[in-house]
User: Fold this.
Amino acid sequence: MSDRCSYCESRLVDASASAQVDRVCPFRVPRRAAIERLRSHITDAFWAPDDVRRLARSGQLRPEELRGVLVPFFVYAASTSSRWRARIGLHWWRDEQVSVVRDGKRVTETRKVQQTEWFPLAGSAVGQWVDHLECASNGLSGREIARLAAFDLGRAVAFDPRIVAGFDAELPTRSRDEVDARAEDSLRRLEWLRIEREVLCGDEPQLDTLHCDIAIERAELALLPVWIASYRHRGAVHRLLVHGQDGRCIGRPPISRTKVSLAAALAALLVVAVLWLAGVWS
Assistant:
């Protein structure tokens, strides 16, 4: 039996390493349901090759490999202390006289024109963040991690070998320092958005600078459920994911070059037709 994860070659959790794991979120989407979600995902993909969609619709398209992987994430609790400078835009309206033609006659009308007056503003803010997730695996791309997004950590339980039986339970392949640095960067981005949305006033606030100190109060290692499937089409292997809790599919099925070429040709013909009707070449 291998002690390495099949999709990223990281070490798997064993009895000696289980003490490192704080929580596990069990799979709520069974294997059969994951396969059905993948078939629907491919069938509904308009740009996928028609032969692939037909196979998926008929149930003949099967993943070469579908593995349930418990992916390592660090779950952070942190506090932020920020100092910021911003510009606050306040709208007001002024009357403007304009000359227009009405019923063949030129007349003068008054219209309202929006103006914005800007004022400098500075301040400070504190924030508290809980259950912030950062992936500790090199096996998933940044785009895949971002699209996996939320997990229901309320369903997490203490590590139990019976929960992970039959699945690949992966240990972190990113160092704790690297994951901490990623967490701090993402928390700063979230704090920037929070201050813009919740703290700044005015009609058109613009945050210019932010200095944010982050204190990580707690970081727990959690294993979160992901189905990872690979399909082969015309010699190329395509990877798709299924969220192990809510069944969302992540990843793009193969794209038909024929469909893309036809769409580009139709778009070009449409542009030519519009220009012709507009008299550009008359």
Remarks:
- Residues 18-87+121-251 form one domain.
